[in-house]
Design brief:
Distance between the termini: 49 Å
Strand order of the largest sheet: 6-13-12-9-8-7-14
Largest sheet: 7 strands, mixed
Low-confidence stretches: 1-7
Mean pLDDT: 91
Radius of gyration: 24 Å
Structural class: alpha+beta
Order of helices and strands: EEEEEHHEEEEHEEHEEEHH
Helix content: 10-25%
Number of helices: 6
């Protein structure tokens, strides 16, 4: 049998209502009957709560806010989908330790910080996973694509890895996110922000003067992005209505030509 659909499973999020002297919960995101509330965290009528179910009753696990506050509703939507916008203290602590350990690692890396490098993401992006650099090589071009080296921070068998596997990916809602990794990693050490040194895994692609691919190679690197571009901005640059940042103007044109 496959996993039950949202309509079949017991709701994880309820709105508290009064029924005489008792409190009950009404599902916030699906139609369903009122559910008697048992013990657990204290809640009041009108509040959004997360619950667990047992014996036909719901036990209050946490108060999430109120249904007339959009931020609270979005947080509740994540919780109802089985997602988590925050991490346990032990996971946050392991992430902080991982950042320090990765910064002190002795693994050989190609130092590419002198290469003019840029990222391209949606204007609303919060983290930057990949970057591009390009330079002339005789009559050809060398393009390098750099991916944040998450494996330098998340080790096999660690609590971080287990947590990331359970989340599978980051899930975004307007103004809210359930990240795959703690923010010190997802928005910090594993985000290729401009002007800061970052550990990466790079792919080097060598093209001849006709645009044919000559060779490829893969290696760990140390990079520093020079400019953060968004897709609309890049369209304007290609259309000639906006000038590219001077430090990456040539790499942008070379990469575009390839």
């Amino acid at each position: 049998m496959g996993q039950r659909s949202n309509e079949q499973r017991e709701p994880r999020v309820l709105v508290v209502e009064s029924r005489g002297r008792f409190l009950v919960g009404r599902p916030l995101f699906v139609r369903g009957p009122q559910i008697p509330l048992g013990g657990g965290a204290r809640a009041r009528a009108g509040e959004i709560i997360s619950v667990s179910h047992r014996g036909g009753r719901a036990t209050v696990r946490a108060v999430l806010g109120r249904p007339d506050r959009i931020d609270d509703v979005l947080t509740a939507l994540l919780v109802d989908a089985g997602l988590r916008p925050s991490f346990a203290d032990s996971i946050e602590a392991e992430a902080s330790t991982a950042v320090e350990a990765a910064a002190a690692e002795q693994r050989p890396r190609d130092d590419l910080r002198a290469l003019p490098t840029f990222t391209v993401d949606p204007a609303s992006a919060r983290d930057f996973d990949d970057a591009v650099s390009a330079e002339r090589d005789g009559d050809g071009v060398v393009v390098r694509v750099h991916i944040a080296d998450v494996a330098a921070h998340v080790k096999p068998g660690s609590k971080l890895e287990a947590e990331a596997r359970s989340r599978a990916n980051s899930t975004y809602l307007p103004g809210n996110v359930s990240p795959m990794l703690p923010r010190i990693l997802s928005d910090g050490a594993c985000s290729l922000e401009p002007g800061v040194d970052r550990l990466a895994v790079s792919t080097e692609l060598r093209f001849n003067g006709s645009g044919g691919l000559i060779s490829t190679s893969f290696f760990r690197s140390l990079i520093r992005s020079d400019a953060r571009l968004d897709y609309d901005q890049l369209d304007r640059i290609f259309a000639g209505t906006e000038a590219a940042p001077s430090e990456v103007a040539e790499p942008i044109e070379l990469a575009r030509a390839v």
